[in-house]
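Q: Got a minute? One more chain.
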Amino acid sequence: MSSVEDLLADPASVGVWTAVPEQSTIGFKCGSFWGIAPVKGRFGEFTGDGQITAAQTVFGRVDIKATTVDTKMLAVNASPSSLIILHAFMLPPLKP
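A: Always. Here it is, folded:
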């Protein structure tokens, strides 16, 4: 995997990049969930793209479908008290 510095220094990197979900992972780690235990997980569905400009500027966007969270812990995934899941089901996707 290249570092950001390597990508910015390489003129061949200039352009638009698209996330490939089959080759990418978006995950998280939480030190304490409900004050009981650490939790880590990943999201199953997401899209994204980014751009590297000739001026060595990087910007992009990632859209994550929060309801696809998988922590390997059924109680956390399905808990109605989990604010992430509750808001993901109640609110429409945000549009820029």
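A: The chain has a mean pLDDT of 77.
Q: Perfect, thanks.
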